[in-house]
Amino acid sequence: MITLGIESTAHTLGIGIKIGDKLVNVLDTYQGSYIPRDLAEHHAKFFRPLLESALSSAEISLRDINLIAVSQGPGIGAPLSFGVGMANYLSYKLNIPVIGVNHGYAHVKIVEFTNRRSGDLALYISGGNTMILRVRDLKIIGETLDMGIGNMLDKAARHLGLRNAADLERLALQHDNYLEFPYTVKGMNTTFAGIFTYFVNRANKKLDRVENLAYSLFHTSFSMLLETLARAVFAYNADSVIVCGGVAQSRILNEMLDKFSKQYGVEILRTDNMYNRDNGAMIAVLGEELYMQGYRSSYPLEAIPRYRVSDSLKHYFNR
Ligand code: FE2
After folding, report:
1. pTM score, two decimals?
2. Which of 80, 154, 193, 294 is most buried, judging by how many CB atoms fall within 10 Å of its CB?
3. Terminal CA-to-CA distance of the chain, rounded, Å?
4. Ligand 1 centroid to 207 CA: how many Å?
């Protein structure tokens, strides 16, 4: 079985190929502003070169592919529809099935695939998403009540004239002091608007070293997340937690997770950074697994821009 995975929900176009246990993963990320049409144009420009590069890495031709999997949502209308459209076209052209998958569920699934085991809970943290899931039924048991943690960190970075959260973290790692920041946890949910506003106001006053401001923002917002995660671990009697999504690449978070793991006796399941970013391999992995379980998408597939992860299995019929 050879599965092609297409990821185009936001600024990254990813093409993945799964051949048995082997994964090929190529991607390109648009570096400009978030204008939907520009994202779609970027993906249209890179689709063919990335597809050709993935096929040559996998040492196969297009005709060897048996199944097309695509991120059906959630995502930004224009780039998302481009990927779904390409998946429909390739399915028709190659006369093979197409299956649509939930992008968030794919983030969880790639960690299970690379660890060769499943987890009890998942902490899914990316630009737009911040949630704790029960993996077996994808029930959302905690989430942000306002902004996603990744978007909050990216906005904070741009406020300082930096590119993104990764640049902000490089700055934060040079801190020499921790500053007290507002801390808001509501049960198993979090909110980040308050801490973000506090960061902006304090940065505007220019009284603190920006390294310390950055570190305190990361440390405090991650502490909030881990408090809700600890509550979820006890409430659901969990032994293992999958950590996935773009923010899972954070070094500060991973150091805090090491301590969390020891403190609460819970195993943390992680994956390589190349699979925490948006990518096509995770789409191929989930699409193939669902297909093998008998799930089928109707043709042609339609994009679902607001596709909740808890609805991951609602858009199929079983054959
Ligand atoms: Fe993502």
Report:
1. 0.96
2. 80
3. 19
4. 35
